[in-house]
Write a structure and sequence with these properties.
2 helices
Length: 105
């Protein structure tokens, strides 16, 4: 007894790729904000002048981590789209082959 046909959810995967790109864009905006934040050495007065020096490397590290995260998300979205293209292309080719083989003549 045949079961349900196996269907690849191409539309859902494409939407997921779009969502992944949207998250990457949000991460890029956060990274840009981190890069724009700069503390003046006078921001905390005389007693806390050391804080910008301590926090600067942390901000740089955060910006780097956010950049890597955004890049990974964009790469994932690209791979999702590539998978959709490959799978739908293979399905189309297989369907054409089956039609050709089952055609009379």
């Amino acid at each position: 007894m045949p079961g349900e046909p196996l269907r690849f959810p191409a539309g859902e995967v494409r939407r997921h790729a779009e969502s992944t790109d949207a998250v990457a864009e949000a991460i890029e905006q956060a990274r840009a904000a981190v890069r724009e934040v700069a503390m003046d050495t006078q921001a905390y007065g005389e007693l806390c002048q050391f804080l910008p020096g301590l926090l600067s490397p942390i901000f740089a590290s955060a910006a780097g981590a956010l950049a890597e995260t955004a890049e990974s998300l964009r790469e994932t979205a690209h791979h999702l789209r590539t998978a959709v293209t490959g799978i739908t292309g293979a399905d189309t080719t297989a369907a054409e082959t089956i039609r050709d083989l089952s055609a009379p003549g």
